[in-house]
């Protein structure tokens, strides 16, 4: 029986996704939404090259990418634009939008999660996109501009309770790090300006979301993960969370 288990394990894809977790009574519970659909709003102020409407369309496509995961059960609902709830405000409204943060010169976007520390239930999740960078919502991307939908896909992964994945490779360049390849949109460092690669979920991302919000058909993969529990890869991360948790998408350099 043990041998069967090992063989099965090795045949399974090597996943590297991480789930956010909170320590509750000596064990780690997953950070996740406990209601479905998850409601969000969009801050109504755009930037010079991306209107609020274009922003809303780009993030709708990013939410749709995650909703298309057939082995996961999570849906998202747009509740309209807001002029009063800014991303980052603790106001029980999950808001996505631009914020001008020139001091964060390597942070493209950032997700803040409010978590019930007793249960791991997500209470609110906000995402800001740094207006100091050049953004694009062009269908095929634009040279010199970051693809909003690509960055949104990763941030929505965080919004949903996923951490970073280790499936990628970088090299050191004069300005920091450049991504050579990534097998997960949840790889922490974004592709450069002009790239739309991050719009498309990879098997590791799909496995991660399905692990947090399984629809029933994901059972086999979860068993494979449990079998590999000695590897860091499939384990939920046990981290000490303050009430507010921040995850940031960076395009080059430094730790996260
Ligand atoms: Zn990230």
Structural descriptors:
Collagenase (Catalytic Domain); disordered C terminus; six-stranded mixed beta sheet; disordered N terminus; 27% strand; alpha/beta; binds zinc ion; two-stranded antiparallel ribbon; 256 residues; 22% helix; 5 helices
The best one-word shape is globular
CATH level 4 superfamily? Collagenase (Catalytic Domain)
Count the DSSP helices. 5
Low-confidence stretches: 1-13, 220-246, 248-256
Bound molecules: zinc ion
CATH topology: Collagenase (Catalytic Domain)
- SSE topology string: HEEEHEEEEEEHEEHHE
Strand percentage: 25-35%
Kindly provide the radius of gyration, computed on alpha-carbon positions and rounded to a whole number of angstroms: 18 Å
Structural class: alpha/beta
CATH first level: which class?
Alpha Beta
Mean pLDDT: 78
Q: Please, how many domains?
A: 1
Strand order of the largest sheet: 4-3-5-7-6-12
